[in-house]
Amino acid sequence: MDERIITDAAGIAEGTAHLARICPRMAYAVSLVGEVPLRWRGDGFEALLHAIVSQQVSVAAADAILGRMRAAGLVTPRAIAASDDDSLRAAGLSRQKVRYLRALAEADLDYAGLHTTPTETVIATLTEIPGIGSWTAEIYAMFSLGRADVFAPGDLALQEAARLLYDLPARPKPAAFRAMAEDWAPWRAVAARVLWAYYRVAKDREGIA
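The structure assignment produced for this chain is given below.
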């Protein structure tokens, strides 16, 4: 696999410098947000478990559920497979998420091998598992595997940031946004980080939570 991997602030700096050179609006966003965060996350089963648990609930609710699961030792494939539905539901999981976590536990993914697997194959492999859609797979590739040139066009905050930064009449739809992001290759994951940071700054200025 010959793909650029971001592991530290130097990679982010190189990407932001490239984006600022090729696009005046990206340059403006970078100047506004200051240091663009690495946002590195862990990888492996618990990282994907966290992503599934966090779907469609608040950060506080997800943290509470994860806290109960860790306290009960329900954060490994073996523990999930061996537990009954009542134990998982007691942690705060919906029936659907119980099914998703069982599917993840049964998938027997080669997490170490994903680090040397092409991004497209990583996303295709992850999205075969119930409960893992394109957004979750792209975020995993971006923040758990450090891929420099992956994007998440379905992310609403990214869409809104692009609308604001590029003065678009509406949020770009995922297909159009994916095409738009091609201009930011080979640093699309850094462009995403810039847009997320810009979104927070822009919303703070407007006084919107």
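Interim note for the steering committee: Residues 45-143 form a domain with the Endonuclease III; domain 1 fold (CATH 1.10.340.30). The mean pLDDT is 94.
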